[in-house]
Specification:
By secondary structure, the chain is α/β, with parallel strands linked by helices. The protein has helices at about 50-70, 90-105, 115-125, 165-175, 180-190, 210-220, 225-250, 265-280, 290, 295-310, and strands at about 5-10, 15-25, 30-40, 80-85, 110-115, 135, 140-150, 150-155, 200, 205, 255-260, 285. The strands form 3 sheets. A 5-stranded mixed beta sheet has the order 3-2-1-4-5, with helices on both faces. It has a 5-stranded mixed beta sheet with strand order 8-7-6-11-12, with helices on both faces. β11 (about 255-260), α8 (about 265-280) and β12 (about 285) form a beta-alpha-beta unit. Fe (ii) ion binds near residues 115, 119 and 294.
Length: about 325
């Protein structure tokens, strides 16, 4: 086996088209490039066909930029990996097609990887976390994941929408634009009063639909300041997330909490997670922003790990898996 493996990974589950390059060798794993190209609209939301068109347009540029950043050529690449799922069909198809093309044209093995698991594995590579519980909070996803008895398991998840999408919808409703998460975070700092909202934890799972309906009605009534609503929304839903994460720590007996996903950029959520970890003698790990949001580096890194385990995805069997569950990977 080659002493140094280089993997080019393609991410395209939703808004982001990302190309990352990871390598492994005697000194362990390293990220050589992480190019992130985002499709955004002023109003937010996602029209799958438009996002896919963006990904098609940007694909060549992103691959070229990643190779240049890593100072390598396609000849130096040993493995091509891609996000096989879960995600939006139109978007996933672009990344998969680009990966298949590179694999066939340059005769490189192809490895399809699970997007959610890649958030966990990149955190383990880039922080000191060894066997963490991952709180994965993005636009479409809200999951508490950990590796236990030979398998990745989901210890809790949203029963309806992802926490990021919920924040984005509320932000759009109150006219503060997209992406909603960071704007709500800013307004929340000027919040003075906690307004009671539904707190929905069912067993280990969470749900945001009812909270969204409730807070939209409160805003429409005109009786509340939007700063107070943003503050209360964050306090409520983050407490729900922290509670589920804490239960997973208790259940698994693990002592490391890792954050992943765009919503994990939120400093208030980080603060609440840190407080919970301190209280129970656990450690919190937060990768830097470019590795929290969707990115190709995590796909490249998981590509290497899967390849080393023997995973090879035949082109005929490389169909996208929009509903691929973490516990089926
Ligand atoms: P996927 O769900 O497929 O992983 P995504 O397109 O939602 O992908 P991310 O980049 O992980 O990708 O997350 C975007 C989400 O993160 C948006 O909903 C955005 O509002 C939210 N977000 C970004 N920054 C913050 C923040 N500071 N506070 C809260 N939410 C944030
Ligand atoms: Fe993600």
């Amino acid at each position: 086996m080659k002493e140094r493996l280089v993997c080019l990974g393609i991410e395209s589950t939703a808004h982001t088209f990302g190309v990352g390059i990871a390598t492994t060798g005697k000194t362990g794993g390293r990220i050589l490039a992480n190019v992130i190209k985002q499709f955004t609209t002023r109003k937010g939301g996602i029209i799958p066909a438009e996002a896919a068109e963006h990904h098609v347009d940007i694909c060549d540029v992103a691959i070229t930029e990643a190779l240049a950043a890593a100072a390598i050529t396609l000849k130096d690449v040993d493995i091509v990996s891609f996000s096989q799922g879960p995600g939006i069909g139109n978007c996933l198809r672009v990344g998969a097609a680009a990966a298949r093309t590179l694999s066939l044209a340059h005769k490189k093995p192809l490895v399809g990887v699970n997007h959610c698991i890649s958030h966990l594995e990149i955190g383990k590579l880039l922080t000191a976390a060894k066997d963490p519980v991952l709180l994965y909070v993005s636009g479409a996803n809200t999951q508490v994941i950990a590796f236990e008895t030979g398998k990745y398991r989901i210890f809790g998840e949203t029963l309806d929408i992802g926490v990021g999408n919920m924040l984005d919808v509320f932000a759009r409703h109150i006219g503060i634009g997209f992406p909603g998460g960071p704007r709500i975070m800013r307004l929340a700092t000027a919040g003075k009063r906690y307004i009671e909202l539904p707190y929905v934890v069912k067993g280990m799972d969470v749900s945001f639909g009812g909270i969204l309906t409730n807070i939209k009605r409160k805003y429409d009534s005109g009786d509340y300041r939007k700063e107070d609503l943003c503050y209360s929304l964050q306090e409520t839903v983050f407490a729900m997330l922290v509670e589920t994460a804490e239960r997973a720590l208790a259940h698994t007996g693990k002592s490391e909490l890792l954050l992943g996903g765009g919503v994990a950029c939120n400093t208030r959520l980080q603060e609440m997670c840190r407080a919970m970890c301190e209280e129970r003698g656990a450690k919190l790990f937060v990768p830097e922003r470019q590795f929290l949001v969707d990115n190709g580096a995590m796909i490249a890194w998981l590509g290497i790990l899967e390849y080393l385990k023997g995973t090879r995805t035949q082109v005929e069997k490389s169909e996208i898996l929009p509903y691929w569950r973490t516990d089926e990977a």
